[in-house]
Amino acid sequence: MQQQRIGYIDTAKGLLILFLLFGHCRILASWQGLDDPVLHLMGKGIGLYRPFFMQTFFLITGFCSTFSIGFLPFLLKNLKTLLLPAVLLDLLCYGIMAATGSVEESFVAHLAGFASWLKTGGPWFIFALLWAKLLLWGISRLKRPWQILLVAVLYLLGLALNHFERFDNFLWHRHALLAVPFLYGGFLLKGNMERIQKYLLPAGLVGMALIVAENLVAHFTAFTLPANDIFIDVDFFNFPLHFVNAAGGSAFVFWLARRLVKSRMLSLLGLGSLLAYLMNETLQVPVIRLLMPVYPSGSIVGCLCFHLAAYVLCVAVSCLLIWLIYKHRALSWIVGKF
């Protein structure tokens, strides 16, 4: 029987994808040589969600994943839902970027580099999530006190490996170790979301207020906001806030998702969140380049309109691609419903 999807969970993932597209619009515009006050303001805006963004994704994954099946079925299921889409979409992204003139290497050269792609781990999120889920599968077999102890040990090990940097971050193992507690948090939430619903708004407001305060402190001091996306900005000093920010930010996202659960756009982005994550750069670069000829470098209002238009168009293109792929049974099977 096909597992029924939870509406507000898809909406929550859709909100996170909006954050992702916003941040990457800013980064990719900078890569195209653009530099204006609006881009700098967008950079400040990233700091409002980066402290909890990926942790919320991991928490949602732990909440939605089933760890009660045997190891081999669990491994094959995750290879299909994570690694297979990453591999096939990598090739598709190459084709799109080659067609738009965004890459110069030949297809043969791209295939030749595929072994290196696997060695370095491809998109960091894919391998970090895969290893973290496999670890949590084993942890879930233990009694609760041992689960908590092992999750804490793995997290501290990830911090230590990142701090001392004695070993390369091969296949993103540091990210995987740091992701385990958040997956475990989602695992613990199973069956308890209704109990904590009344606490979502106050926890979310307090959490977001704290993140704003942290941004202000970081602006005027050497304090580093704890966050880990492709970069790990978590250490033995700020790691408690890593969990506090994840809890508060996730609560805010869940509360907002429940209010916007009827949004078809957010549900669509949430349904195709893995697709949007893996293909966002491929889609956004051509959009930004398409708008470049009308870039108004001398006007703040014009720059604001430009970046807003680029963002809205990137969201629209992502929604269109997800809709088209999920209309096709074979394509939707390959990409999966993450």
* Strand fraction: under 5%
Unreliable spans are none
- Enumerate how many helices there are, as a single number: 16
Provide mean pLDDT, rounded: 88
Describe, in plain words, how this protein is organized in 3D:
- The structure is a single chain.
- By secondary structure, this protein is mainly alpha-helical.
- The protein has one domain (7-335).
- It has helices spanning 7-31, 37-46, 53-64, 71-99, 107-112, 114-120, 124-139, 144-164, 173-189, 193-196, 200-220, 239-259, 264-271, 273-291, 300-327, 329-335.
- The two termini are 17 Å apart.
In short:
The chain has 338 residues and is mainly alpha-helical. The protein has 16 helices and no strands.
Notable traits:
mainly alpha; 16 helices; 74% helix; globular
Task: Indicate the topology.
Layout: H1 7-31, H2 37-46, H3 53-64, H4 71-99, H5 107-112, H6 114-120, H7 124-139, H8 144-164, H9 173-189, H10 193-196, H11 200-220, H12 239-259, H13 264-271, H14 273-291, H15 300-327, H16 329-335
